[in-house]
């Protein structure tokens, strides 16, 4: 019988973000981009050993239906509050939150622009 060895992830914060958003918001689209390297030279990041502090998240979820952008962002921030409060945790999030219908309209507009 073989046993699998568990190796630590190179992206534990991204893994946590993905897990929490998937389990709570059941997204149809979830894109997470780590932009931390773009901000490493900023004064608040000096001395930080974390390479997972700044993220751009695009998420499409039925949970966002009939909610304002501000309410949607509060939902995401609420899910990630522990990671944002932790020393060396998330310093900044850039969010794009939308419903399936909004995503479809966006794709249609992009298609029209490519003609």
TrEMBL record:
PANTHER family noted in UniProt: BOLA-LIKE PROTEIN 1, PTHR46230
InterPro entries on file: BolA, BolA-like_sf
Composition bias type Basic and acidic residues, residue spans: 106-115
Pfam families cross-referenced by the UniProt entry: BolA (PF01722)
Gene Ontology terms: cellular component: mitochondrial matrix
Family per similarity comment: Belongs to the BolA/IbaG family.
Gene3D superfamilies with a match to the protein in the record: BolA-like
BP GO annotations: [4Fe-4S] cluster assembly
Record region (Disordered): 1-25, 90-115
Domain of life from the UniProt record: Eukaryota
Protein name, entry field: BolA protein
Signal peptide bounds: none
Skewed-composition ranges (Polar residues): 1-10
Transmembrane stretches, start-end: none
């Amino acid at each position: 019988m073989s046993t699998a060895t568990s190796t630590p992830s190179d992206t534990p914060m991204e893994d946590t973000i993905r897990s929490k958003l998937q389990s709570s918001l059941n997204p149809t689209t979830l894109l997470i981009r780590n932009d931390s390297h773009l901000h490493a030279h900023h004064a608040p990041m000096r001395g930080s050993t974390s390479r997972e502090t700044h993220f751009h998240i695009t998420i499409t979820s039925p949970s966002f239906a009939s909610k304002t952008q501000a309410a949607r962002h509060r939902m995401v921030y609420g899910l990630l509050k522990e990671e944002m409060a932790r020393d060396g945790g998330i310093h900044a999030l850039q969010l794009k939150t939308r419903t399936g219908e909004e995503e479809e309209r966006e794709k249609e507009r992009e298609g029209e622009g490519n003609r």
